[in-house]
Amino acid sequence: MGILCGFASESGGHLAYLSRGLRITFYPTLKNLGIRAGMRYSKVYLESFGYHLPHQVVTTAELEERLLPLYKELHVPPGQLEAMTGITERRFWEPGYSVTQGALEAAKKALAKTNVKPEEIEVVIYAAVCRENFEPASACHVAAGLGVSPNASVFDLSNACLGVLNGIIDIANRIELGQIRAGLVVSCETSREIIDTMIERMLADRNMETFKSSLATLTGGSGAVAVLVTDGSFGKDYRRKLVGGTTQAAPQHHGLCKWGMAPAAFDFAATAPAAAMGHMLNLARQFMSTDSVSVLKHGVDLGLRTWRNFLHKFGWASDLIDKVICHQVGTPHRDTVLKALGIDRAKDYSTYPYLGNIGTVSLPLTAALAEERGFLKPGDRVGFLGIGSGLNCLMLGIDW
Question: Using an 8 Å Cβ cutoff, are 127 and 187 in contact?
Answer without folding.
Answer: yes
